[in-house]
Amino acid sequence: MGQDRDTNTDEPTVGQLVANASRDLSSLVRSExxxxxxxxxxxxxxxxxxxxxxxxxxxxxxxxxxxxxxxAAYGVSALGLHPALAFLIVAVVYLLIAGVLVLIGKxxxxxxxxxxxxxxxxxESVEALKAIGKGD
Length: 136
What we know:
Elements: H1 2-7, H2 14-77, H3 83-111, H4 116-134
Helix pairs in contact: 2-3
């Protein structure tokens, strides 16, 4: 019997195998986390650049709208109206458009129902977990 133990010393024990598997799994998880960080950093830089470019485009679009509004007011003024009245007309048109957009937006928000199926299934999952926890 003593001889059998000496011949098996080259083979790892179950405890050693579990420890090796645990170490390898831990190493794999760390490597995956590092890969994820590297990918997310690259994605975040690209997203930030894209967002900055969209912000710049939005700012230039706003400036264009302002200049076009001034041009429209002077165009109305060229029809013979006083410039103050022409600018007032353009402002009122914008306010009317804004009011229509508010009403449309309000009706769209009224149609928003959230995620009723997800909420219901989540409640069912919580109840199932509670039942398992109680041993039912």
